[in-house]
Amino acid sequence: MASQLTVRDFFKRFPDDEACLTHIMQVRYGLKHDCRACGVEATFHRMSNRRAYACSHCGDHLYPTAGTIFENTRTPLQLWFYAIYLFVTTRHGVSGKELERSLGVTYKTAWRMGQQIRDLMTKADQFDMLQGHVELDEAYVGGHRPGKRGRGAAGKTIVMGLKERDGRIKAEVIPNVKMPTLRGVVLRNVEEGATVSTDELMSYGLLEGDGYKHGAVKHGAKEWAYYDYRHDALHHTNSVESFWRLFKKSVAGTHIHVSQKYMGRYLGEFTFRANHRQMENAMFDLLIGAV
After folding, report:
1. pLDDT by residue (tens digit) across 110-166?
2. Which residues contact 33 (CB under 8 A, 6 or more apart)?
3. Which domains does the chain have, with CATH numbers?
């Protein structure tokens, strides 16, 4: 496992906006590359009066923050980098109020920064379809109201998680748990022929016909795991359920409430951290590269 990126390490690496801008330039283009204007491999020098670099051969200006979440921002780059650092080093997420206090910005600015970083995490976490043995489980998040409890409580958002056994995870918001909906999610995200473990929800009965090796544990009958000799597989949904426990606990403890409108962004944030938790330093660089 990579060593933890400490606060001291962070500020040593990025002591000011200049260091942050240089890092963005290096990640996006490199300080020496083929100029888009003259085509010559040239060195690019920092301009003193703007966030730009100039080609040493023809003088063409290159703005490394153009087209990124940093473009036209009045918030110092170092604060943006520190906000990203907080997102990759936390376990339970970062609230808008925490960003407001940590960065010394307004709540409106902190909330906007947080949402843009979550979008960045979702963008950086794109990968091919899940393979091998995949656990599926749907969950109902938020929406607690007086007199309403459980899965059917009004205002809850339905989410679906797909977790490779000892591997990657994907999650998305779904409108319902009907067969066409669940089938569509599986077909988009799980490679045909994979072994799939679910609970006993009737809508998952579709999977065998689509070429998956499907096994269902009967939670209602207090069955939490069983060995399928036909497919040589141990069926349970413990891994994906652990993800949902952490996610629900974090939403309740850190964010209090997340609306359905923004739930996808928070799922993207948590799945990104789950998929890259072994590489904390590289996780930060991966996000900066994704800008």
Report:
1. 999 999 999 999 988 887 899 999 999 999 997 654 344 455 556 789 999 999 998
2. 41, 42, 44
3. 1-16+74-124+259-291 (no CATH), 133-256 (3.30.420)
